[in-house]
Amino acid sequence: MRLDKFLKISRLIKRRTLAKEVADKGRISINGIPAKASSNVKVGDELTVNFGQKRVIVKIEKIQESTKKEDAADMYSIVKEEKISDSNRAADE
Fold first, then answer.
1. In what order do the strands lie in the sheet with 54-60?
2. CATH number of the structural domain spanning residue 38
3. Please, where are the H alpha helices in the chain?
4. What residues contact residue 68 under an 8 Å CB cut-off, 6+ apart?
5. Which of 2, 5, 23, 77 could form a disulfide with 37 if both were Cys (CB 3.0 to 4.6 A apart)?
6. Ranges 1-5, 73-77, 88-92: which has the least confidence
7. Domain RNA-binding S4: where (predicted)?
8. In this structure, what is the dihedral angle of CA atoms 33, 77, 7, 31, given to the nearest 10 degrees?
């Protein structure tokens, strides 16, 4: 499944167009490798997503073509969530 579609269906990011923008700006990596919106994701992959002041690392548990709001969180598990300081962000860019 495409990265942007997974982010939307799992509700990590609310809109697919926003997921595409975030990925194309280099704020998402799959298993430590920078990813584009068209990158494929599979079960077991670890996604690192940088949201402004926060970095979230999630592991993909399952992939579904569509899901209900209540079931979306079952598609991934949060490995780590951390606040990004200005010095850490500068080092990442």
1. 33-34, 28-30, 46-51, 54-60, 76-83
2. 3.10.290.10
3. 3-9, 16-24, 86-92
4. none
5. 23
6. 88-92
7. 1-61
8. 10
Range of the domain at 31: 3-92
Q: What is the rounded distance in angstroms from the CA atom of residue 70 to the CA atom of residue 29?
A: 26
pLDDT digits 0-9 by tens, 9-61: 999 999 999 999 999 999 999 999 999 999 999 999 999 999 889 999 999 99
3-state secondary structure of 19: helix
Structural element, H or E, at residue 77: strand 76-83
Query: In sequence order, which residues have a C-beta less than 8 Å from that of residue 81 and are 6 or more positions away?
Result: 54, 55, 56, 57
User: Cβ(1)–Cβ(63) under 8 Å?
Assistant: yes
Number of folded domains that form the chain: 1
91 pLDDT more than 80: no
* 33 contact partners, CB below 8 Å, separation of at least 6: none
